[in-house]
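As the work plan foresaw, the team has encoded backbone shapes as discrete tokens. One protein thus recorded appears below exactly as we store it.

:::
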Amino acid sequence: MKICAFCGSPGGNVEHIIAQWLIERMNAKDYPVVVGHRNAHSLKSRPAHGLKSYTTKAVCDECNNGWMSKLEVWFQHRMGMLVEPAWPKLACEILRLALPEKEMLAKWALKTVIMMDTNSMMENVVDGATARALYEGRIAEGLVVEVAQIHEKAVGGVLSHGFWVRNGGNSPQWQVHEGKMAFKAVIQLNHLAIRVFRAPGAHPSYYGPNGRLPLRCYPESQKPDDVDFRFHDLWEFDRVLELET
């Protein structure tokens, strides 16, 4: 039997990883979703399939209809306009109003990543302690959440244990944390992309094209008007992040 990824109780409750309200608001009922895993040399992904069949049973009824549901209500209320087919002209204003509640955004994003992780192609990327902390209302130390506006509309995500890492002045090399406490995930919902990552002992650095950078939302938040967070596609946004040790 599946167990709940958060509290460890018996699972079996069917959860849409991309919530049904999101599917409706994205106008993506028949849109194919692609989820993949990146390593040093390639990106492996499953064949695209419909969002309605993108589900998991690794959650219990109490979690699904309790604190997880409250996070969905918050995200729909504060961020819902950003997932619609057309990127809103008032996007910076929407973010400016949402970011004072940055902990809610971080919890929603991490919850969604963990649900993606339960229906993935490899061993879980997010460790159990991080998921348990979220269930207890805490955000794991060192978690970072960033957003971007993506020009090419799509729905999908990438999960990974690895990062491109610069050691001193050397060229970046692909590295995986020995204890697998580090992870990175990117979710794209139409033109909105959200990155969640945790990298103990490393410092994030960014090499964005033409000065474009992700908008940091958690643990500190930037002013949306101060950052050009536009990227061409998910892969450009993903690659802009490197670590320094």
